[in-house]
Amino acid sequence: MTTRNRVLLVEDDRFLRRAGEVALRKAGIDVITAVDGEDALRIARAETPDLILLDVVMPRLNGFEVLRALKDDPATRRIDVIMLSNLRQEADVAAAMAAGARDYLVKANLSLSALTEAVGKALGEAV
Amino acid sequence: MKARCRAYVPVEPGKMTLHAESAHSRGTRPVHDARGRRDRPHRRDRSRSRHQPTAALDPTAFGTFAAIGDDAALLHESIATFTSDAAERIASLRTAAATPNAEVLRTVAHTLRGSSSGLGAASMVELCQRLETRASVLSAPEAVRLVAELERELARVREALSERQHTS
Q: Which residues of A touch B (CB under 8 A)?
């Protein structure tokens, strides 16, 4: 990737957050992180990243609430959002897509290399 | 930009097939899990607990993680984070199982399932899944037994991680 795109990784689990952060950095992607929903909204508004990787089950605001707030705000509505979750019922997926998510990835089935690949593809299409 | 939904279904350990499907075209059927099974509550919990012993860590999943975290200090830090957070969560589950408190069992098991899957700790993932999906119907003794099983599995994972750290 020639352009260093910026990705906001929102994940309350510090092990997964660190692993994802390292994997993306090694792929040449500029990563910023947030630890919960409120933190995510604050950082998204301040930094306007190219892509947001958004966990669903989190303290304070959950991923669906964050997604709706991002899409309701003219300053952040154009940012692509990929949901990352272990909730894999059809209703959860459909709700995320209806709220404006670009993609929905099930963490339990996702390796770090597959995550990096999905992010690279999303950024490639976005730029 | 066109929105879409994907489910990753491994066809063999560590290799994934991408299934691109519209969220709206799939109706209400459940998504399949990593082993291709349908995601639904387990009916015979007792029989499932007598599973054959499996490796504590999926070697392919951990290999992916280790390859990316090739910095030994970083690997050590990540493993320490996982094991200490997992131990804290199991302590919370133990307290919740005694009541039992279904909401705490469900949410904590969900979080622990996420980090366990990131490490490739397949048996921990399965036990967390059982706690999460059956939280509201488990009796206190059943919940306590599942949490104890999870605790034993964490000990196996710790051992496996320690071995990996010494060989990497």
A: 12-16, 18-19, 22-23, 26, 57, 80, 86, 88-91, 93-94, 96-98, 100-114, 118, 125-126
Q: Is B26 on the interface with A (CB under 8 A)?
A: yes
Q: Which residue in A18, A100, A106 is closest to B78 by CB distance?
A: A18
A109: closest CA of chain B, how far (Å): 6
Identify the residue whose tokens are 């090739």.
B70
Q: Which amino acid is at A3?
A: T
What is this model's ipTM?
0.73
Cα end-to-end distance, chain B, whole Å:
42
How, if at all, do strands A80-85 and A51-55 pair? Answer: parallel
Among residues B115, B132, B126, the alpha carbon closest in space to that of B150 is found at B126
Which are the contacts of B125, defined by CB distance < 8 A and separation ≥ 6? A108, B34, B113, B116, B117
Of the candidates B142, B129, B25, B58, the residue with the CA atom closest to the CA atom of residue A90:
B25
- The angle at the Cα of B7, spanning B6 to B10, to the nearest 5 degrees, equals 135
pLDDT per residue rounded down to tens, chain B (168 residues): 444 444 433 323 333 222 222 333 333 333 444 444 444 444 444 444 444 557 777 766 665 565 555 667 777 888 889 999 999 999 999 999 999 999 999 999 988 998 888 888 889 999 999 999 999 999 999 999 999 999 999 999 998 888 777 765
Smallest CA-to-CA distance from A79 within A48, A117, A56, A105 is with A48
| Full-model pTM | 0.73
